[in-house]
From TrEMBL:
Family membership: Belongs to the bacterial ribosomal protein bL17 family.
PROSITE patterns: RIBOSOMAL_L17 (PS01167)
Organism phylogeny: Bacteria, Bacillati, Actinomycetota, Actinomycetes, Micrococcales
Name by which UniProt lists this protein: Large ribosomal subunit protein bL17
Subunit structure: Part of the 50S ribosomal subunit. Contacts protein L32.
Keyword annotations: Ribonucleoprotein, Ribosomal protein
Xref: NCBIfam families: L17
Organism: Rothia koreensis
GO molecular function, one term: structural constituent of ribosome
Transmembrane segments: none
GO CC annotations, alphabetized: cytosolic large ribosomal subunit
Keyword Ribonucleoprotein found: yes
Sequence segments annotated as region (Disordered): 144-197
């Protein structure tokens, strides 16, 4: 029997392993995201991305090659007509793996592997967003320096009143969202944490809320969902303990 090159096999033989990965790829293309162990997710990623690369070619030979692994013709049709065109401008990285903790029972590390269907941002858009963020940070530092140089008697005559946190006026922020404060604290009225890399959000009391650093704040979960964010670990993991 040949020796595996990437650790122990998922099944009892190479054929069994190929069948396992083919079935998981078919489920991934059908449901767009599946939950499995971290080991299986890492072994599934190159197999699924290679099939997507074949589907992006779009010719008959590529379709026949994909049907050697996927037996459901409806899934193959979905892959060639929906998934592949959505990833035409993406050079790679068609899947995303998000760890969600250990499984109850055997304590196996679990993960969610999903297709990255979001459109690819052009380099010019990314540069403009970076320049706008740098300009906003510079403006905030200048405003803080001017406030520190104000006369002491003015500060004594007029009591300092903290302004209520309001959603940022930047056009790139969705409705009901607020940029992170420099102090690291949550803006008033914004308690839902968002992560822009994984497009996940965390509500107060959820499992990873305290250990998550917010890259964007939302006033409620509905605003996060409207902005395209999904609950971390699924809807069940985002229930607030009363």
């Amino acid at each position: 029997m040949p020796t595996p090159t990437k650790g122990p096999r998922l099944g009892g033989s190479p054929t069994h392993q190929r069948l396992i990965l083919a079935n998981m790829s078919q489920q991934l293309f059908e449901h767009k995201r599946i939950t499995t162990t971290v080991t299986k997710a890492k072994r599934l990623r190159p197999v699924a991305e290679r099939l997507i690369t074949f589907a992006k070619r779009g010719d008959l030979a590529a379709r026949r090659r994909v049907m050697r692994s996927l037996t459901d013709k409806s899934v193959v049709h979905e892959l060639f007509t929906t998934i592949a065109p959505a990833m035409a401008d993406r050079p790679g990285g068609y899947t995303r793996i998000t760890k969600i903790g250990a499984r109850q029972g055997d304590n196996a590390p679990m993960a969610v592997i999903e297709l990255v269907m979001e459109p690819v941002a052009s380099k010019s858009v990314v540069d403009e967003a970076t320049q706008a963020a740098n300009a906003a940070a510079t403006a905030n530092q200048s405003g803080a320096a001017e406030s520190a140089q104000a006369p002491a008697e003015t500060a004594a005559a007029e009591p300092v009143v903290e302004e209520a946190a309001a959603p940022a006026a930047d056009s790139d922020l969705p409705a009901g969202a607020h940029a992170p404060l420099e102090s690291g604290e949550a803006p008033e009225g914004f308690e839902v944490k968002g992560n822009r890399d994984s497009m996940k959000y965390h509500v107060p009391g959820s499992r990873w809320y305290t250990s998550t650093r917010a890259e964007i704040w939302f006033d409620n979960a509905e605003s996060a969902v409207a902005a395209g964010y999904a609950p971390a670990g699924g809807a069940a993991a985002q229930k607030v303990s009363e």
